[in-house]
Amino acid sequence: MKVNILFSFKNGPSGGGNHFLSLLHSEYLKMGIYENDPIKSDIVIVNSYHNLIKAAKLKNHYPNIKLVFRLGPIFYYHRGNIWKLMDKFIIALANKIADGIIFQSHWSLAEANKLGFNAQKNWRIVYNTAGQTFYRDDNFIKNHSKIKILAASWSSNKNKGSGYYEYLDKHLDFSKYQMSFIGNSPVKFKNIAILSPLDGKSLAQELKAAEMFIFAAKDDACSNMLIEAMAAGLAVVALNSGGSSELAQFGNCKLFSNEKELLDAIAGLVVSVDHRSGLGTAVTLPTPETVAREYLSVIDQDKKATECSFWLVLKVRFYISLFVLIGKLKFIYG
């Protein structure tokens, strides 16, 4: 069996999808089953809306190749109603040409059902996971006097939690805490330090040097950043939204729904600076190898592969082109 991931990998600072798929790629290389050429592969993993035209053309020319669609985010919640067209299109295309579908959380599945997902397809819920780089050594020593809190987002979208971070900037007790935000923020802070987006190794170092992680993104399917913070042994305070509430099972995590609950959750996790080594807890995340194998197990090897007609390829190409054009016109004319 040979596996390909139909995705353009990036080096340096990047989003959670790139982090996770790079980890998946590494696992398949270790297993000796990764194939760089999708044409020579038995299974090709398609990520969300990326390379849908290529996926359709591949299925049309090589119908025996089986496609696994990785679905999770619902884009119109973050990017506006125009993206609901794309969300529905992704689900409709997966219904037709996917041989197996991975949802990143129960929340993702529930949202896909609202958009017309065909539950008769082979599907499975598989949470993302973190690489060994993010796990903290038990002997890791902190050398700061205040309790160190981190938050992060590569996106400056307001639904990524900027309102809550702005609230903390005004109301957190900075005589007791120090807080840094890593990534791109749409607001300026007075007390919270801002760090530029970091690559995976540097991000891991920052996480392992902290005690607590705040995750305030709304309607997030399965945040890699949240998972990586848990892997690093941080206590986590997360917005009770999207798939984040499901991820709470993997670490020392308190959920919040409003600003008061946010401050109460932070206080509830902290006893004193002297006890900060006990803030985090051992996590029970699935190993990368386990997750990599689960992605393949969604495929029924005895079932005939799906097909993609030439007309469906044209339809995909037309729809994607039309969507891009609408996006450009919306950008120009508002």
UniProtKB/TrEMBL annotation:
Pfam families: Glyco_trans_1_4
SUPFAM superfamilies named in the record: UDP-Glycosyltransferase/glycogen phosphorylase
Gene3D superfamilies: Glycogen Phosphorylase B (3.40.50.2000)
Protein known as: Glycosyl transferase family 1 domain-containing protein
Organism expressing this protein natively: Candidatus Magasanikbacteria bacterium RIFOXYD2_FULL_41_14
